[in-house]
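tokens incoming
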């Protein structure tokens, strides 16, 4: 006879669905998708095309915010990326979604919340766009200020807790998933960075989970004008 906890876990594993937008453009969808794929958490992917008449009514069937991503676990619908990540950490405790060390975990959560709520200058000037690459140019003072802070945060985390591996807290964690779309921005918009930052970015871009997402993005044909910028 299975323990009740094992039965509950099997139910979660068979029921999980993740509602996402276009892989070329949906930075928020990338975050939980990358985390779940990297850790081998089984789920069904439900893609909904952005910037179409069907998007809002379709997503509202899953998410009360009308936005992606949304995690569906049976009758439970979890929207907002950090809430999804915390829920996954609870139902898959065998995976180090967050660092095990308490101090490292606190910093990882703080940086993830900072990412969730901030960096509007970079987001606005450099929307995630896995369809194209851009030559570097001045994207404005707000974007430059954000990049300075992001690099500072990455170096601080790596300096304090990164000795055990190539990611922000050594091993890959939710903090890396939260910053993965930033990596694509710095890479895709050719921001000049020093070697240590480039090395971290290359680790994210080389992840099998990220490469799988990128392959999906490359297969898409829809162009979302709102996420296209001038050269």
């Amino acid at each position: 006879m299975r323990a009740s906890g094992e039965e509950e876990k099997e139910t979660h594993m068979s029921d999980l669905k993740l509602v996402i937008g276009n892989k070329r453009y949906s930075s928020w969808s990338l975050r939980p998708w990358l985390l779940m794929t990297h850790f081998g958490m089984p789920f069904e992917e439900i893609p909904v095309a952005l910037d179409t008449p069907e998007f809002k009514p379709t997503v509202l069937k899953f998410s009360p915010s009308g936005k992606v991503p949304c995690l569906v676990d049976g009758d439970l619908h979890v929207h907002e990326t950090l809430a999804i990540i915390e829920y996954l950490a609870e139902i898959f405790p065998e995976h180090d979604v967050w660092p095990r060390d308490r101090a490292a975990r606190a910093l990882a959560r703080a940086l993830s919340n900072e990412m969730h709520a901030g960096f509007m200058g970079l987001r606005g000037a450099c929307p995630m766009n896995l369809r194209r690459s851009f030559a570097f140019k001045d994207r404005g003072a707000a974007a430059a200020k954000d990049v300075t802070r992001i690099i500072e945060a990455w170096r601080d985390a790596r300096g304090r807790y990164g000795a055990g591996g190539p990611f922000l807290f050594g091993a890959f964690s939710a903090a890396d998933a939260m910053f993965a779309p930033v990596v694509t921005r710095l890479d895709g918009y050719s921001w000049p960075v020093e070697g240590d930052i480039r090395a971290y970015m290359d680790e994210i871009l080389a992840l099998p989970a990220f490469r799988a997402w990128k392959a999906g993005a490359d297969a898409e044909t829809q162009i979302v004008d709102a996420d296209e910028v001038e050269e």
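note: The first helix runs from residue 4 to 15.
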